[in-house]
Amino acid sequence: LLVGAPRDVEPTNSTRTGAVYACPLTVSTSDCQRLDIELKSEPDKAIIDDMWLGVTVASQRQPAGRVLACAHRYTKVLWSGSEDQRRMVGKCYVRGNDLRLNISDEWQTYHNEMCNSNTDTDETGMCQMGTSAGFTANVIYFGAPGAYNWQGTDYMLQREMWDLHDFSYPNKKNGNTYIGYTTEVGSAVLQQDAVTVVTGAPRYKHMGAVYLLSRSPQQTLQRSLLLPGHQVGSYFGSAVALADLNNDGWQDLVVGAPYYFQRKQEVGGAVYVYMNEVGDFQPHPSLVLTGPSYSAFGFAVASIGDVNQDGFQDIAVGAPFEGPGKVYIYHSSAEGLLDKPRQVISGSDLGPASMRTFGYSLSGGLDVDSNSYPDLLVGSLAEKIVLLRSRPVINILNKTFTVTPSKVDPARCTPDSCITVTVCFSYNQSAGDPKYKEKITLEYILEADKDRHPPRVRFLGTHSATYRGIFPMPKTRCESKELLLLDNIRDKLHPIVLSMNYSLVEKPRTFQLGPHSLDAFPVLNEDQSHQNETKIEFQKECGSDNKCYSNLQLQSSFVTDQNQPLPRLNGTQVLQYSRDVRKLYLSVNISNVPTTPSNGEDAHEALLNITVPASLLPSSVRPSGACTFVETVLCELGNPFKRNQRAELIITFEAIGIMLDTREILVWLDLSTQSTQEDLQPVLAKLLVDYSIQSSLTITSSHAQSHFSGTVVGESAMQREQDVGSPLSFDFQVTTKGESLGTLGTILLGFEWPYEIPNGKWLLYPTEILVNSNETCQPPGGVINPLNLTVSDLLLEDQAPSRQRRELEAPEPAEPPVTLATAKKAKSEVVLSCSKGTARCIWFECPLFHTQHPTMFSIRARVWNSTFIEEYSGFDRVKVDGTATLFLRTHVPTINMRNHTVRFSVDVDSELIEEQPAEIALWLVLVAVAAGLLLLGLIILLLWKCDFFQRTRYYRIMPKYHAVRIRQEQRYQPGGLLPRRRKKHWVTKWQEPEKYY
């Protein structure tokens, strides 16, 4: 084991040059030997103090291969006169397989100083070569991140026979990129046969990048592909590794970004996996692995070979600052790297020695103990290294797990035998070593019906459905166990699931150092499933597929005790409420009749679950014993409920909570079966509870007689009800049968009362409403006797005829009675009604408090005499109409009552005094005629004298014309082109008269 110690002190001269140690595989932890690199101290030419020898250590990984050690801080001294200039160019040393210098080996004698110390930082004067380096069979390569103003570069020396070719990445004027910070070289990256240099540049544009470099015809390294980083400061590219993760013959790329973070997700460090797509890579990774906060996950990544020998290479990721440090082992598959670590090794798990920064550096892929499995060497900053050796991996091959018979018939089972379970095991080593025959022990567990409580089976000799067995190997053998059915099992539809899982019994061991063999401590292949299961079907009459497709159907209705269905309203059954209803009966009919060739098969564990409301109490069922009454009614229909089977259940309920306010009764019927039926839905049996109040409304006399007469009296002058007018009285009788409603509703008698005429004058003035002659009703709003007139307590006047009542009244000193001229009195009748708009009505109500006995409502009123005298004195009779309605007011929709409306009217006759016509004397008539004739003659004489009777003549009103002769010289001479006209020796003169007649 080669270990670099960059800060080690030379024991002879105390120079801190660094060193490389070789540690043999022994029990001792202190037998590492410092290698003699044969360094020469020439302070005038080079400074080797603090040159960090061992910062990079590598080997060719082949028999008789060479080793490489680098010191990236190796410094050349240049003299200019008495002043010296120092160039930190770095240097690498090659030694043979015996770790000594062989001067006959050109690999070892080559100076391996690729940087020109005679240049400054703009060239390669501070290149720090050896920060990264490595070997292949014929290539040695170095990373120099300080070259070209810390742009960085890579050097590659390739030996072909006796020729030596060197290549480097040129100066691209891209400073502070750190190309060469880490470097890997391999083939089958961009091309199958060509070598590709993969180098990290963690400061490329502050986000980092990975360069893929190829040889160019100009003997330089040229960039073929660049993979950029994804977060500023993540140091993407500070660690790289090549591995064929999916075994497709192309090397995939793994890149570390140890300072990547996500605060909310508490992520610290990331590893990006780029899958090779036949020589090409996508700019975005196919997988991103992350570690916990502050862990520097991805500080080191390494290809560790196929540690489980499954044909896919695996990788290790270091997280040196996660506690004492941890190393994550990831396995691969045909799809690439798995996203979950198969193993996480912590520095605290490595025995009594304390460890910190475990996982700072990684190197794997070599089998150091010759057990056919590659091992892993882990470094730290605690001056300790850890060799993690791979344990053998075994594959369980012959995992025979059978049951006999595959379909069980409960009728054929005996108390000692029913189902035979057989398990067989064998194994081999995943590396394929046929000599590996270690004794191992498997523990297997058989578990039946693990998801059912209680299970339906048990193992013979136990009372449990679980059996634990021990299986020693390598001898292949089988074990059989008997599985018995329990008595009276219900579920015969679903199969019995029998599962088997196994694990390796670990041998006791203590912590032990040294190269002892690990063959006796194998592990199971975790990529294999360690469990298996099988299903044991029951013998059923359900077709060739052994699946039962039932066709359960349900119909229900509420019936009487004579099994007659209750009446329906709009498709819903209705129950008429009565105190005599003590029981309800629900009839349920179930059938399993096929409607298609594929349904109607046996319904296993057919159940009917009935959910009833609190108003019903299940009491019995017919046939007896078919159902159980707990919180719900559960009826077992059969196991199975066979094809073409029918059943009827009649469930009796005690009506313990059906009240007046019960609107409906909802009973849910839910059919279920373990057979397959997708259309099973809960069925609702709904029963409406209806309560109808039987009532009647009658009026003693719907037609009343009254009159109006006397004189007009103002409203303010009225003090008693007698001052209003003649009295009226209407008597209504209300009869109801049924329960007292209490707070659930009120029966009311409402009146549409003709209160006034359209112009606002009083019509019929209500004075009081008597209930059963001893109580009064006062509707809200003060509509009864609103003027607070004195109401007479004497009812005698209402019992006498109206004529006698008027004659008995004492005469009151008032204005003389109104007389109506005979010529103005029309012998007619007028109707005052609210429906016709000839009267205004007011609505008021009186509640019915005593519903068990008939109730008499008497409404007393007065005819407003003054209104009839002023407005209807020209009519012989005025007919006034009104209505009374008996109705129910309730918020419970199931309580109802038919409304009753009666009409009442009153004929108010006019009893006004008519004026008698007077006789005229004959001589007065003759004198009046003579005087009239004399006056007519005088008028005619006067008109004649004024020419009133003379006709108007025509000439007196028409205009006149006069001709005037004009001399020739005075005539108008027309122009030359106008035609000559006839001479006109006269002109027309127009005159109008001054007036018209």
Automatic annotation (TrEMBL):
Integrin alpha third immunoglobulin-like domain location is: 696-910
One matching Pfam family, short form? Answer: Integrin_A_Ig_1
Where in this chain does the record put each Integrin alpha second immunoglobulin-like domain? 542-687
Set out the biological process GO terms recorded for this chain's protein.
Answer: cell adhesion mediated by integrin; cell-cell adhesion; cell-matrix adhesion; integrin-mediated signaling pathway; leukocyte migration
Membrane topology qualifier? Single-pass type I membrane protein
Q: Which domain of life is it from?
A: Eukaryota
Chief localisation class: membrane
Q: Where is the Integrin alpha first immunoglubulin-like domain?
A: 390-541
List where in the cell it is found: Membrane
- Name where the FG-GAP repeats lie: 222-283, 284-339, 343-405
GO molecular function ontology, one term from the record: integrin binding
Q: Does the keyword Glycoprotein apply?
A: yes
InterPro entries per record: FG-GAP, Int_alpha_beta-p, Integrin_alpha, Integrin_alpha_Ig-like_1, Integrin_alpha_Ig-like_2, Integrin_alpha_Ig-like_3, Integrin_alpha_N, Integrin_dom_sf
Keywords from the UniProt entry: Cell adhesion, Glycoprotein, Integrin, Membrane, Receptor, Repeat, Signal, Transmembrane, Transmembrane helix
Mention any one GO cellular component term assigned to this protein in its UniProt record. external side of plasma membrane
Transmembrane portions of the chain: 920-944
Q: Which Gene3D superfamilies match?
A: Bicelle-embedded integrin alpha(iib) transmembrane segment, Integrin alpha, N-terminal, Integrin domains. Chain A, domain 2, ntegrin, alpha v. Chain A, domain 3, ntegrin, alpha v. Chain A, domain 4
Family classification: Belongs to the integrin alpha chain family.
Protein name, UniProt field? ITA3 protein
Q: Which organism is it from?
A: Herpetotheres cachinnans (Laughing falcon)
This protein's gene is called Itga3
